[in-house]
Design goal:
- By secondary structure, the protein is an all-alpha fold.
- The chain is built from 3 helices and no strands.
- It has one domain.
- The chain has helices spanning about 10-20, 25-30, 35-45.
- This is GcrA cell cycle regulator.
């Protein structure tokens, strides 16, 4: 299964906002209803370092 998914502008804006707030990738993935791998890949593509989960 490919982690490449279509990201709408709205989804990317939500992703950026949640990442800026320090939300963990696992929570972002649940909120956006996308796999953790897809969220991590998109964050990397955008040059955003996600919060490290404890």
């Amino acid at each position: 299964m490919s982690i490449e998914t279509n990201w709408s502008l709205d989804a990317v804006q939500n992703l950026r906002s949640m990442a800026r707030e320090g939300m963990p990738v696992s929570v972002i993935s649940l909120r956006l209803k996308r796999p953790v791998e897809a969220v991590s890949a998109k964050l990397a593509q955008l040059g955003i370092t996600p919060r490290v989960e404890a």
